[in-house]
Amino acid sequence: MLHFALAGATQTIASKSTAFAPNASAIVPSTFSSWEPKDYVLAAGVVVTLFLGIWNAIGTHRAGRRTTFITTVTSQRIKWIEQLRQDISAYAGLVYHWAFTDIPKGEEQRNLQKEVDRLSHVIRLRLNPGGELDRHIETLLRDIPRHTEDQIEVARLLEELTFYAQKLLKEEWEKVKRESEHGPLSERA
What is the band of 43 on the pLDDT scale with cuts at 50, 70, 90? Predict the structure, then answer.
């Protein structure tokens, strides 16, 4: 009797559950062979939409990374340009002061020479050893302190340093502009 009652309860539950879901196979086709043409179109649309969504997410991620890279490189180049400009102007000012001012030998002159030497090394570290303009500037940085007793030569060398520094800074500024407009220069090489 227990078995019969249990079987009856199962049958009652099964008949009640079908009342809420009239025909489950009518909602979701069980095999591809029973699909109608509209089902194939719907499935293809879902697959294409999924593919395009993934494609768009990948493209957006790549573009975002590229933009971040370009922004970072550009801002660092701008900082480098400004710092190089500041260092070269400080160097030129100190050398000019050293050459055109009567500074008694002693602590003040040693401090001045020390600062000129420090700036010379800082500037050289900012330069590209393979660049033509950079090599000219580096040569001038080595030569200028040797001529501090000859005011005319120091003035000429400082003018030459300023000229090459201006050319270098202009060249780098043009690179920054091109890179910010068109992306990394290395991609176009």
Answer: confident
